[in-house]
Amino acid sequence: MKGVPERLAALLWPRRCPFCDRVLPKDAFMGCICRECLSEIKRLTHEPPRLPDTEHEFYAVSGAASAFYYSDGVRHAILRCKEHGHPWYAQEFADMMAVMVFGAEASGYMSGTPVYHAPGGLLPYTVIVPVPPRRRGGGRMPYLLARRLSRILGIPLSCPLHTTREMKPQKGLDLAGRLQNTKDAYACRSGTDLSGARVLLVDDIITTGSTVSACALALLQGGAVSVFAVSVAAKEELPPEKRVPKQQQPQEKQSK
Ligand SMILES: [Zn+2]
Predict the structure, then answer these.
(1) pTM score of the predicted model
(2) How far away, in angstroms, is 37 Cα from ligand 1 center?
(3) Backbone angles phi, psi at 147, to 5 degrees
């Protein structure tokens, strides 16, 4: 049973749909998506979650998965969470990742928050690690996602990675630029022992895969035996069946 502070917080700051900001009803899909947003969000679901190697330039990771395509409503919601002062939505995104990528199940509510059950004993990871902020005071979304995933999946959280130098923002760089920008830019803190660890590495968006790959290399150098990357969304070309047909897009008003 939750304490009074948690129940008061749930009353004052009820959970909201990260895609439209509406207060979530009790029957919200997976506990975190409102009915109005459901069809749009289902359209942007990455099925299956596993990311194809053909769309990304991975190295050092054993594989990667995302819950969504980074497009339209998903893109807007992530930007709101990351850059426009709504960091608390990281909890709802982590809940969606737990359900859509790892098969956790929402089973009941406690003080307005859904309770999820991890898929018992099936996950092969021993530790969850977030991608560190690229600069001082940079985004905490990967950490917030990793912390919530750690609770739901019952896998310990660890933050061994740090950046070794200043990086340019990845946004706007081409593939070669991104690979160069992240090369040797991450390392494990001294004294880190990841011997034998099977790491689940968490980021918010996977674009080329250069950031998660550079982090994975540092984790392997720190003793990890494998690194699998997971993100809320992946930047890929939308498959044709997931694009919005032209006639469904809002039409301009006819002149009288
Ligand atoms: Zn909504």
Answers:
(1) 0.90
(2) 4
(3) -65, -45
